[in-house]
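Backbone-to-sequence.
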């Protein structure tokens, strides 16, 4: 089968648009939570503490995670060892941000009087599954590609699985975000059917999330944009230092 030739004519533009869309989603979620739901606090105000949840989950599980996925194509001229390290560290940063976001939502439920039940909605189920998959994906990738690092044939065999579940986890996170936006809006915006300003912002956030996810998947799966191995990669591979 013929290997597609690398063609980067539209990569920079597409990548730039994707980054702008992702940043805009994060900004709009901050505006939505901060302006329409009372700003931000921690345990002193459980109602407002909740607002950290959508902001941090969007930042960590969607924006930072997406950039971790894209790093091999965005910085294709860097050595693979450095890209691996950056890929792994961005995952760690995303995970820490997400854990703080989870603490915020559990606090906001548990500290209420009376407490609100946890983990009963479809949003929470899909969100937790995506987070568990994210952690398992990171651990499997760390063992396979970084330390101790398996032999080249085993890495090559696992790579398609790693890519598939990485994208699946990202898509699940976007689905969870869309469900969470809808759930929160239906509860808090009584006249949602009249499409007030908050409803418009929430709808735009949802649309931008879908477009952003589509752009990320396109950038990752388009064969013409695939990173080509550098001579240094082969040297590292044969010397056992990769």
């Amino acid at each position: 089968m013929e290997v597609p030739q690398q063609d980067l004519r539209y990569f920079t533009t597409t990548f730039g648009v994707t980054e702008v869309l992702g940043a805009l989603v994060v900004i709009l979620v901050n505006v939505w939570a901060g302006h329409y739901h009372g700003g931000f606090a921690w345990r002193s105000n459980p109602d407002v503490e909740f607002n950290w949840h959508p902001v941090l989950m969007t930042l960590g599980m969607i924006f930072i995670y997406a950039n971790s996925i894209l790093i091999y194509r965005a910085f294709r001229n860097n050595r693979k060892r450095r890209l691996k390290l950056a890929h792994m560290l961005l995952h760690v940063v995303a995970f820490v941000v997400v854990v703080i976001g989870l603490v915020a939502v559990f606090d906001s439920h548990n500290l209420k009087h009376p407490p609100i039940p946890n983990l009963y909605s479809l949003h929470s189920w899909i969100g937790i599954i995506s987070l568990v998959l994210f952690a398992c994906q990171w651990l499997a990738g760390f063992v396979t590609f970084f330390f101790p690092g398996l032999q080249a044939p085993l890495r090559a065999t696992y790579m398609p699985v790693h890519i598939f579940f990485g994208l699946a986890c990202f898509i699940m996170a976007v689905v969870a975000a869309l469900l969470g936006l809808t759930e929160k809006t239906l509860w808090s915006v009584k006249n949602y059917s009249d499409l007030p300003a908050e409803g418009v912002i929430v709808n735009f956030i949802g649309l931008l999330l879908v477009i952003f996810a589509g752009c990320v998947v396109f950038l990752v799966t388009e064969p013409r944009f695939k990173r080509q191995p550098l001579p240094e990669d082969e040297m590292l591979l044969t010397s056992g230092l990769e």
